[in-house]
Amino acid sequence: MSLFDIHLLGAPVLRTRSREIADVDDTLRRTIDDMFETMDAAEGVGLASNQIGQTDRVAVVGVDDTRLVLINPTIAHAEGSTRAEEGCLSIPELFGEVTRAEHITLHAINADGEAYEHAAEGLLARAIQHEIDHLDGILFIDHLSILKRQMLLARWRKEYKGKELIRRFRPASTE
Ligand code: CO
Asked: Three-state SS across the chain?
């Protein structure tokens, strides 16, 4: 097991649409294990392929006791709308209120290569929608008003000016 580096806002890979995965093999399963480990180390509730510098259609989500592997995920059904504050491991320390569907039905493939369906609401539904966005090259800031987005981006540029667009993790990091 090892931790991935997380790519930050400004890295082109975050704006790339990830490709459908044809085969679920051991290499992919190892990647998924390391994605979960990285997500936990970063104290996030989800992590998508693009964030680790890859462009395969896979993400992981972990909210409370529910841990889901999302290979080629789609939202088959969405209902209601809810607004809540959202952040992203690729845009540390910046948050904004995003409107998302309240109830969703996810269709995806798991690490065993089996298609499954999962009904979700609340934070889990939000995390799934956020991660699927990542696979399409979309970030939560894209859902904000222009004014709010410009405010966050100005803060981002100030904080991260001249810094590397990557966040490196070491096991047992206390950052
Ligand atoms: Co994110």
From this structure: CCCCCEECCCCHHHHCCCECCCCCCHHHHHHHHHHHHHHHHCCCCEEEHHHHCCCECEEEEEECCEEEEEEEEEEEEEECCEEEEECCCCCCCCCEEEEECCEEEEEEECCCCCEEEEEEEHHHHHHHHHHHHHHCCCCHHHHCCHHHHHHHHHHHHHHHCCCCCEECCCCCCCC
